[in-house]
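Q: Structure for this?
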Amino acid sequence: MNISKEEVRYVAKLARLDIGDKEVENMTGQLDKILGYVAKLNELDTGPVEPTTHALSISNAFRNDVVRESLRQEDALANGPVHNEDAFVVPRVI
Amino acid sequence: MELPALSIHEVKDLLASGQVSAVEVAHSVFDRIEAVEDKVGAYITRNNEQALAQAEAADQAIKNGNGGALCGIPLSVKDVLCTKGIRTTCGSRILEPFIPPYDATVVEKLKKAGAVILGKVSMDEFAMGSSNENCAYGVPKNPWNLGYVCGGSSGGSAASVAADECLASIGSDTGGSIRQPASFCGVVGLKPTYGRVSRYGLVAFASSLDQLGPLTKNVQDSALLLNVICGYDEKDSTSVNLHVPDYTSALVEGLHGITVGIPREYFGEGLDNEVEQAVKNGIAALRDAGAHVVDVSLPHTDYGVAAYYIVACAEASSNLARFDGVKYGFRDTDAKTLLDMYRHTRSKGFGDEVKRRILIGTYALSSGYYDAYYKKASKVRTMIVEDYQKAFQSCDVLVSPVAPTPAWRIGEKIDDPLSMYLADILTIPANLAGIPGASVPCGLSGAGLPIGMQLQASHFEEEKLLQVAFNLEKQLALPVKKPAGIVS
């Protein structure tokens, strides 16, 4: 087994996903198979190889710090499922 | 031929000489969409009203003599790109009500060039899929045979071009999502070098792999669209500040002085006989055009899929954290606590494949597994990059199949995610290395399904790619055949 049901439940919790018992069963089987396939990476000796995280060797991309127009607050809030005139509204936290 | 069946450059000529107006062109495409859309299902959201206004403006610009490069040309856009005032779903329920307050840079460039935006076309949810079956708004069909998938994730783009429901389309490619559907639907698809086209306003799947590009009826149109969409954008810090050439000047006849490399690992086990034959015919055509042909090796090709699904899922799990029911899209309003609101919103809003990839990515990045999965995959990525560097020392353009098989039946692979992933084995390496790749039609299978040939070149060598693509198209001179699935 590459991944257990408990691990799937734990990872789902980290990822803020609710997964029912039947879905856990299914997902565990599929993820197990996928991770089993991914294990073929271990056939390669990658000891001294540097990892690539970006296809081009761009380092920092700087721009001038200038004030410019941005979205109006009204437009930025418009897509919020629940909002008032000033902010997005979410269920009470404290 | 009917107007919607023409290519961009043909319609441009008709518009310039005043033989048709942009409004007439737009109406002819609306009619075509009306006629075939219930069979194909390429569009998620149509945009006739704005499109007509854009066509009217285009006619005015043509009259004033100041029309842009795409003045009056009707295009479809994959629903992964933000379009101001037009719903952008990304194929997901979680973005069903999302109306972007701004245009993606590519959309802005298309509009500036005078294009008419017909609407938003279908895709696998968040561009995750190879068949376009993971779409919350229905499954588009392959116009060549309605029982078959059109490929993915830019399936709606490819199907809309093949079915003449637009003149061309913009798609995105993270692991083959432009090239594979282009191959399945018999159109030309091109993924530019990473950084060539701004990703601003593209809903992110895997930020180090995503790139936008054209799906068109021929190679010339591909060059025309590249001219418009390429270029540095200060809103995308990964876009590259390099001069953009006139890509149409790369479309010259003859391949003397060009060396094409045949990567032997791309012709291995699992390659369909008809695909192999069609690609070999294509290689012979390139030789006839004057190309020098050599064998090359990309020894780590077979590890691409494994490395990709770790890297892409890791990036996706992080990128998709933003869909939490707060700032945009769907929210489950029954939840009483913030945490429940996040969980219920995401569980109801995302489809199975998206959840699967978020779980893989979260697992691969989680404490204790990071080195074994993400770091390992990133190192293998380096080995794939080095394979290409070595191969491009002895050739200009790599030539291979796009996918191991032609399109498969709808439903055939939907319950077996791994077999679906493996269908991308020949397109994924280009994304890991960030190099440009294209799919150009090179034949039909016995069952009448299109087969594409993949071309890959080194970073920023789109011109060589186009030159080889152009000559392949010319030499093969495939008979103009319309997709059988929608011929009534």
